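Ticket opened by: R.M.
Priority: normal
Category: complex prediction / small molecule

The reporter submitted a protein together with NAP and asked that the result be attached to this ticket for the collaborator who will pick it up next week. Submitted input follows.
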Amino acid sequence: MRHARTLNLPDNGTNDVNATISDATRVAIKAGCRAAMSLGTALITGASGGIGAAYAERLARRGYDLALVGRNRSRLNTLAAHVSDETGREVQVLVADLSDRKALAGLESFLIEDATLSMLVNSAGIGAVAPLLQSDVAKMEEMITLNISVVIRLIYAAAPGFVARGKGTIINISSTVAIGPETLNGVYAGTKAFVLALSQSLHHELSGKGIRVQAVLPGPTLTEFWKVAGMPVHSLPSEIVMPLGEMVDAALAGLELGEFATIPSLPHIADWDAFEAARQKLLLNLSHAHPAARYRKQSNKQQLPSRDGNSGKRYQ
Ligand SMILES: NC(=O)c1ccc[n+]([C@@H]2O[C@H](COP(=O)([O-])OP(=O)(O)OC[C@H]3O[C@@H](n4cnc5c(N)ncnc54)[C@H](OP(=O)(O)O)[C@@H]3O)[C@@H](O)[C@H]2O)c1
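Result attached by the on-call engineer:
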């Protein structure tokens, strides 16, 4: 392992709260390890496996130094060693349970203070497959925390630095369920629709300031996500499941093509463009001083006199 470092962020009291990254440690890492021609540091959540780990390998090969975030220390260390040996890039491991407020605060400080940060990849997330009424509401809240609140807090921490430096990239891993909430669990779909909507708003707000925002909407992808969610991926028809490497390569190709939304499976981008054009057309008609004619007709009918000659009351 040439350029890998492990740092603990406090989580649930299992790690020492004082073990948060000190300025001195960070300076030492930067001074000792930064390889030439870096594209800056890409911080990737959910980097201990699946989509996040695949991003880590590819971004390091493209010239990014990495900060890898997850709970599983040994997986993160193995990936960091492999990536730094293969590419010579600096790789920092940040062990953190993102659902723990103290650990999250440590990570936010890291994002705020690291001026080399050039990319944030929000990949950490969990799913659910059970129908709404058969799923535990407490688990749904945990999912909302990780899939939504954590994403918001990390973006709030990273984006001001990107704006100040006039450059930066935010990649948010949403899902095709964001536009097809009838699939899987409705709360999971809602979290991913949130990620898409937030990304759309950020894209609108930040693209003029030199910031790239990309929402990635994968369909089923071959990772442990399914096992964690309680459905073996092999129970899905193989023709709808994409190999992990192909999915992430397509997402990065979409980034290079300048796409805002990348749906790796979608054969024709014209279909997304038509969907987006329909949304834009709707937007022109969503704010008027009076209700649409069809609703006015309905309410007029309900005010007509009744057959016995008494004047009718509304909404009887
Ligand atoms: N796979 C799919 O079919 C699919 C499709 C559409 C969208 N997605 C989205 O893609 C993203 C990545 O999923 P994946 O397929 O790569 O799943 P995965 O293989 O299960 O990876 C999930 C990652 O999130 C991390 N994570 C989970 N809980 C965490 C916590 N409390 N704190 C910190 N890290 C945590 C895990 O690391 P630790 O266990 O080390 O903490 C792991 O690295 C998710 O947002 C998911 O919604 C996946």
